[in-house]
Amino acid sequence: QCDLQGLWRNELGSDMTTLATNTAGTFSGSYHTAVAATNKQILVSSFQGVQQHPSAKRHPTFGFTVQWQFSDSTTGFVGQCFVYHHGKETLETMWLLRQEVLSHRDTWKATRVGTSIFTRIK
Ligand code: BTN
Question: Of 14, 20, 55, 114, which one has the greatest count of Cβ atoms within 10 A?
């Protein structure tokens, strides 16, 4: 069974706390990134997400969007929760980080993409 609620850490050392998913499948939480594309001081930032089939305890897909408190950027994550042997849960995700650029001429360099795996630490 996969439960998104809890404290998770990814391969960069970023920590994320996810609150309980409601019956409609929406959830929220806070994200403490270990790294940033800006030189500003990192602040804990909130996110809003949705999960598919919140009551069926399978391997749900989900997505969430982080509204960074210290930069003009937005990150969207999509992923799926898996359970391995011994009940170890992981969140396998991909993300897009959109940076604010001042001209549409700069849009070509405004989006970063990556993969990220979160494991439960609590
Ligand atoms: C910014 O740099 O403007 C905001 C912080 C972005 C952090 C990114 S989001 C994707 C990747 N995974 C993380 O845990 N942190 C970075």
Answer: 14
pLDDT at 55: 77
Regarding the beta carbon of 12 and ligand 1, being less than 6 Å apart is answered yes
Closest residue by Cα to atom 13, ligand 1, is: 33
Residue 52 CA to ligand 1 center (angstroms) comes to: 24
Task: Specify the pTM.
Answer: 0.96
Class of the 6-120 domain?
mainly beta
Concatenated DSSP letters for 20-52?
Answer: PP-TTSEEEEEEE-S--SSSSPP--EEEEEEES
Burial class (CB in 10 A: 0-12, 13-18, 19+), 30: middle
Strand 45-51 vs strand 26-32: parallel, antiparallel, or unpaired?
antiparallel
- Atom 15 of ligand 1: nearest residue by CA position: 33
pLDDT tens-digit readout, 76-91: 999 999 998 888 899 9
For residue 71, give the nearest of 100, 47, 28, 96 by alpha carbon. Answer: 100
